[in-house]
Amino acid sequence: MRTDTPQTIYRKDYAPPAYLVETVEMGFDLDPDLTRVATRLTLSRNPESDGKSVVLYGDGVQLVQLRMNGRELTRRGYALGNGVLEIFNAPEQVTLEIETAIHPALNTSLMGLYVSNGNFFTQCEAEGFRKITFFPDRPDVMAKYKVMLRADKKKYPVLLSNGNLIEQGDLGDGRHYALWEDPFKKPSYLFALVAGSLVCQEETCTLKSGREVLLQVWVEEGNLDKTQHAMDSLKHSIRWDEERYGLELDLDRFMIVAVGDFNMGAMENKGLNIFNTKYVLANPRIATDADYAGIESVVAHEYFHNWTGNRVTCRDWFQLSLKEGLTVFRDQEFSADMIGTDSGRAVKRIEDVRVLRQAQFPEDAGPMAHPVRPDSYVEINNFYTVTVYEKGAEVVRMYQTLLGRDGFRKGMDLYFERHDGHAVTCDDFRLAMADANGRDLSQFELWYSQAGTPRVKVETAYDAGQEAFEITLSQSCAPTPGQAEKKPFHIPVAVGLLDSQGLDMPLFLDGSGSAEAFTTAVLELTESSQTFRFKHVKEKPVPSVLRNFSAPVHLDIDYTEAELAFLMAHDSDAFNRWEAGQRLAMRRMLALVKTVREGGQADAGAAGPLHDAFRATLTDSRLDPAFQEFALTLPSETVLAEQLDVVDPHAIHAVRQAMRRSLAQALRGEWQIAYQANRTPGEYSPDAESAGKRGLKNLALAYLVELDDDAAHRLAQTQYDNANNMTDRIGALAALANSSAPGREQALARFYEDFEQEALVVDKWFSLQAMSRKTDVAAVRELMRHPAFTLKNPNRARSLIFSFCNGNPSQFHAADGSGYEFWAEQVIALNAINPQVAARLARTLDRWRKYEPALQQKMKAALQKVAATRSLSKDVLEVVTKSLA
Ligand code: TRP
Ligand code: ZN
């Protein structure tokens, strides 16, 4: 908790550490009430610094003893305050022996060493290691670790840490020990230990080089029937990184451990990845198709960090996207390759862009907007953002778009050749890409330093006489906090031209020098405005611009409704086919919002072209069901809100609902046919093809239930009763929960009874109700009184509180402000338990200025209430201060 004004840390203040650590030896005497940690460090002066002080950080740890080079240091030998321990004028070579005492059972922040369901776990990224011992806890200090764990043998039969198990045995007294050694140098944020009563599934795997490695997935007893998918995902990831990037697992043993109390998704600790149970445990009874896909991608993500993050790490936390953007890009590509088909790849791309638009674009337009490589922070935990992760991944993807797959691979090879074993910067990555390809990528740096989503405006002209088609691209970027003016970005814009048959025209770009015809050209927009000219264009084309979403920008382009329907039907680029449908729907919805705002009705009845286009997509049996599902899903309320200057969440909700009902009505027969045609009888399999069918079938059900009639209620109830997998069960339950079906309450009650032993399913139960249109603030308060609810478990808090505040806009934004009062209460309650989780919830209101005045005032009051709370963590304080600024 804060006792003084929080400090802002600036990127420009970076200085190398005065001392480097060579070796770390640690001994843990594990006890939930009082754990003793003995640490021996060997340090030496860093030739790259002229500092003479050893600087160690500690956070909430009790210093029991401190010895330097064999002699105890008294309070005169060092200074300790504000979490910094400084030893002045230390000699060239230093051995420090540090003894600390910590209280894992009282640690509700879930950072450092904590207890979950009786077992010990650690979480050290970003600055959690300093909650265990005093240490130069910064990622540019890399050292080799040897770790001795001692604990009661009965309660903690399993003792794990990074690297290899060197020795284990009994200590007498019912205690035992295990000694672990990590052969690789690593920053302290990758340290991990796990101790407790756990069981594992293990397999061996032969690497490309022929070396055999041991793979383990550790879970609590009773969960071994839920580990196979994580294990398979790990094996696929190992294979993929060998094949796609020539990167091999460098350890003899690789462990994944699942824990029910966890702040985020998972953590890439060297050789000992620790995961939120949500991203490990799956079987058809408890996990949905989305859960299976999530596990596959998070297992891959953490595994890929072993090279992009661990072997090559970050110099400082401003460089976070160096590892996160790159690793997200890698896991996105992996998941796409696992689906394997072209349409599967496109669907994956659509999903990723949806996340970007839903979450990152709003962030980039709000008070917390920051560059992919931020310039300052108060609390680094607040910068594990969609900008650093998802926009960061888009930035990495643009290298591949600009350099080609082979060029990108060359850049990766050079990156590892230059930087393996080192802590480096985003600039180092960019230079490796540039140098490996003989390209100047200096302008590309602006993607790291400038915040905000650029807008690209497209204007075209066709000259029939010259058979020439010109595309003029102009770019701009709105101001963001601290950045009033922006320089032009280097933007790859992938373009194709469709002829009147809907076929791709061969492209001859003027000045490109290549006589070879291709059908997608990557235009490089580097100035504020540029014109590109295509030759031999025999008829006036319909341009398909920003294919596959080649850059994270807003695209302003004037299409007629007929052109959008044409693109939706014919574009060879599946992403832009989807995009055309979204534009068509968006246009219609924005017009209706305007009508409603002016006092009219949200009458979506006369939506002719949209209905025709949706009908064509729904009935086209050549299309991939997964694609159909996305193409037939209307832009979300959040995405709609982004398009408006003043947000009226109730008007938006009314319009989207009216639109859904009118699509349900107009296409009723088609939805019914699609429902029947996409059943997946037989044994459940989470593969992309079956998952796509279930997705479309459940979308059809959701539309039909919008009609709220007996037939729809029966369809949902029957699906619920007969489901043999969680995807169908939860799809049916969500449909029932949004309806006035007579079986609604009974189904909800039965679901809870059937799954009350499965924490992850109970989370779904809370979350589904939190997001139901029938659930208001009072109902959420009631759910909080349910015996299974607790704020202490992050998954549970997210399932109810976050789901309601972020996923139920029409109820959350209740006109009386009761949703905001509820939000403030929960932020304050969470702040005292877990600042990181509290700060995430605090983000919910950061776009308050965009709302209509009446709501704005109430949101502001709620923010002020939180800001005025005593003993606010710096995590929450930073978020609310920036929101109110
Ligand atoms: N580095 C992790 C990842 O992206 C995420 C992470 C960062 C994390 N900080 C954390 C996880 C704190 C849990 C708690 O894979
Ligand atoms: Zn990561």
Describe this structure in words.
Its EC number is 3.4.11.2. Residues 230-444 form the Peptidase M1 membrane alanine aminopeptidase domain. The chain has 885 residues and is α+β, with helices and mostly antiparallel strands. Helix content is 41%, strand content 21%. It has 26 helices and 31 strands. Strands 6-5-9-3-2-12-15-14 form an eight-stranded mixed beta sheet, with no helix packed on it. Strands 17-18-19-21-20 form a five-stranded mixed beta sheet, with helices on one face. It has a four-stranded antiparallel beta sheet with strand order 10-11-16-13, with no helix packed on it. α19 runs parallel beside α21. It is globular and about 85 Å long. The chain starts with 8 loop residues before the first strand and ends with a helix. The mean pLDDT is 97. It binds tryptophan and zinc ion. Zinc ion binds at residues 301, 305, 324, 327.
